[in-house]
């Protein structure tokens, strides 16, 4: 084959190669890939839920009861969960020592009364002798003083006797009001000091919800907010309540504050110790919550990809969102730019282009 033939063959090969390359580019441009996307339907909401937070049902009024005197406890008549009535005996102390004190006080009173009678008789005799000038005025004055001293000792002995009787009464611990025993703090045989707690009695008629809320959220509580309190064991059972008290200091470990909520006519299912969920619904401007991954940010511009009505392409649209500090659970709140029923791409937004052909992967048509 001549050199001229080789040259012709080379030119033909180059031309064919060029034609193949342009053909492939044209094919790729003609058959642009359809990108599968994950979307979310726009559903505006005009309410926001504060919570829920877990808590318990507790009594508003309860008292830790103990003996007013020291001693060894020999009886405890109630335990946790028992219903008690006003005046019912809850526990008792050993009465040996107090009985001795009572006996001594009775003897002291009898002795004081005898001394007083003797002093009065002596003063009467001295006064009769004084009328006959048989004794001096000083002797009469001494007799009168002894009589007054004896009377004072009688009063003192009577007070000591009353105290001893009261001490005998203090050996029995009695309920101050109708209620239920919620705590047991001492056992039979234990030596107690005065005022040491034995049992805690609560009034079950006035109940409230107690919940610990993170300190950062306490400032957002509306002063007139009405909370919904639901039983965890039966969420369909609910009650309404308002904040009665907010702890002034946060707990050091969890940085949460204890909130006490007064319940409005709770049902019998809201027993003391029941576990509850507390939440608050608030009215807000219509808002759409979207995953943070759906948001495109370019400086001050914020936008999302909105799927066309036929579900085959997307278009970029600017939206207005609230401060990112208010994002909840990785979501952002869109307050303007979207309509109910539209579909927004929520994943892979940075690799999509304007007018991109898409295919919905969440079962939408």
* Strand residue percentage: 35-45%
Number of domains: 4
The CATH C-level name of the largest domain is Mainly Beta
| Tally of helical segments | 4
Read across the widest sheet, the strand sequence of neighbours is: 3-12-15-14-13-16
Which value, in Å, is the CA radius of gyration? 45 Å
Structural class call reads alpha+beta
CATH topology of the largest domain: Elongation Factor Tu (Ef-tu), domain 3
What is the helix fraction of residues, given as a range? 25-40%
User: Which CATH architecture of the largest domain?
Assistant: Beta Barrel
Based on the model shown, name its key terms.
single chain; 365 residues; conserved putative lor/sdh protein from methanococcus maripaludis s2 fold; Elongation Factor Tu (Ef-tu), domain 3; OB fold (Dihydrolipoamide Acetyltransferase, E2P); six-stranded antiparallel beta barrel; four-stranded antiparallel β-sheet
What does this protein structure show overall?
- With 365 residues, the chain is an alpha+beta fold.
- It has four domains: 35-46 and 285-360, conserved putative lor/sdh protein from methanococcus maripaludis s2 fold (Beta Barrel); 51-61 and 204-284, Beta Barrel (Elongation Factor Tu (Ef-tu), domain 3); 66-93 and 171-203, OB fold (Dihydrolipoamide Acetyltransferase, E2P) (Beta Barrel); 95-170, Helix Hairpins (Orthogonal Bundle).
- The protein is 28% helix and 36% strand.
- The chain is rod-shaped, with a radius of gyration of 45 Å.
- The relative contact order is 0.18.
């Amino acid at each position: 084959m001549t050199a001229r033939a080789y040259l012709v063959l080379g030119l033909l090969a180059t031309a064919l190669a060029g034609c193949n390359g342009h053909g492939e580019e044209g094919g790729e441009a003609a058959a642009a890939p359809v990108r599968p996307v994950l979307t979310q339907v726009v559903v505006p909401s005009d309410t926001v839920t504060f919570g829920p937070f877990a808590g318990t049902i507790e009594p508003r009024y309860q008292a830790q009861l103990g003996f007013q005197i020291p001693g060894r406890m020999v009886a405890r008549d109630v335990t946790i969960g028992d219903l008690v009535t006003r005046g019912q005996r809850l526990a008792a102390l050993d009465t040996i020592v107090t009985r001795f004190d009572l006996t001594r006080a009775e003897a002291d009173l009898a002795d004081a009364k005898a001394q007083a009678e003797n002093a009065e008789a002596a003063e009467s005799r001295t006064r009769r002798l004084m009328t006959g000038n048989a004794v001096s005025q000083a002797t009469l004055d001494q007799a009168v003083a002894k009589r007054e001293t004896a009377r004072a000792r009688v009063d003192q002995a009577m007070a000591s006797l009353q105290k001893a009787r009261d001490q005998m009464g203090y050996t029995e611990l009695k309920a101050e009001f109708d209620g239920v025993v919620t705590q047991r703090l001492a056992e039979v045989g234990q030596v107690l000091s005065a005022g040491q707690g034995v049992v805690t009695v609560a009034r079950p008629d006035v109940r409230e919800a107690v919940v610990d809320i993170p300190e950062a959220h306490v400032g957002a509580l509306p002063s007139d907010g009405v909370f919904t309190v639901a039983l965890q064991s039966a969420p369909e059972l609910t009650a309404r309540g308002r904040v009665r008290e907010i702890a002034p200091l946060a707990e050091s470990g969890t940085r949460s504050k204890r909130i006490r909520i007064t319940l409005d006519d709770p049902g019998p299912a809201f027993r003391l110790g029941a576990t509850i969920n507390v939440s608050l619904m608030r009215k807000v401007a219509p808002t759409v919550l979207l995953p943070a991954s759906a948001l495109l940010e370019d400086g001050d511009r914020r936008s999302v990809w909105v799927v066309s009505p036929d579900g085959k392409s997307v278009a970029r649209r600017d939206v207005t969102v609230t401060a990112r500090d208010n994002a909840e659970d990785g979501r952002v709140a869109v307050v303007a730019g979207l309509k109910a029923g539209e579909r927004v791409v929520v994943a892979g937004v940075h690799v999509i282009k304007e007018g991109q052909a898409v295919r919905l992967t969440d079962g939408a048509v």
